[in-house]
Structures are given as C-alpha cells and as structure tokens.
Amino acid sequence: MLFRTLLPAAALLLAACSGPADAPAGESVIEVKEAFIVKPAEGRDVAAGGLMAYVTGAPVELVGATTDAADRVELHTMSMEDGVMQMRQVESFTASEGEPIVLQRGGNHLMLFGVDPAIAVGDSVDVSLEFRDSDGTSQTVVTSAEIKGLGD
Ligand SMILES: [Cu+2]
What we know:
- It contains one helix and ten strands; from the N terminus they run H-E-E-E-E-E-E-E-E-E-E.
- It is mainly beta.
- 31% of the residues are buried.
- Strands 1, 2, 3, 4, 5, 6, 7, 8, 9 and 10 form a ten-stranded mixed β-sheet that branches.
- The longest helix is centred in the first third of the chain and has 16 residues.
C-alpha cells in the first residue's frame, strides 16, 4: 500500500529535479540488462525471473511483460510479514535516473505462470517488456533472458 501511494509523488519530484537530460523531453531511453528466468523444478510450471532496467531521461514504469516461454507474466513484490515471506502482484515498478528497477530472487521479481517445460538451463528466451512514461506513452523493450537453474 505504502509503495503504491508514495510512487507518484516520488516520480514527480525526480522529474522536476533531473534538469537537462540527454534525451528529448518526454522521451526516455530504457536499457534492460541481466534478464533471467529460473527454470522451475521438475513437474512445476511457475518460475521467478529478474532483470535490471535503467532509464535515461524521464522516469518510466514497467507495466507488463510477456514471453513465448510462459502463458502469463506478473510483477511481484516480496516482503516479510509476521515472519513469513509474502508475494504480492503489483501493477508496475518505476525506474528513474540512478534508480533502476531491480528484479531478483528474494526481492521484487517477475513471476511466470505456465512455463514451457522445454526450456533448458543455459538457453535464452525473449521477454517483451512494456514501459509507460508519465504522459502514457508506451515503449516496448525486448530483452533476452537467460534460463538459470534453481541453485544458480
Ligand atoms: Cu512471485
């Protein structure tokens, strides 16, 4: 809850303070790195994934992801509540200059459902990421995600 209510104000503040940027006003340059998907254990089809998303220019929100390797991809947060790890689906994550979106195991992450059992550790699959800036303009970034093993 706190996350959702704080974000718009934080995003506005950063936009106001960022000054002249390399990118033209309203255009954000997004770079996604180190994307990965953890191959599910045998017989399971739910996987976690991660990535780093950097932006130059105005802040952007990651609002969705798709891949041919899974039926559905959600954005999840992870937090400790009463000593128990809780995952929650959220609508977006925000990246601003100097504050990339960090999705990783044990933290905010991608959650994939209906994962293709044929994916193999060491393979790469394309993940299509939809970003939106503050005036609603969408940008799709396709990144290559490495399939990792559970213990990698
Ligand atoms: Cu999750």
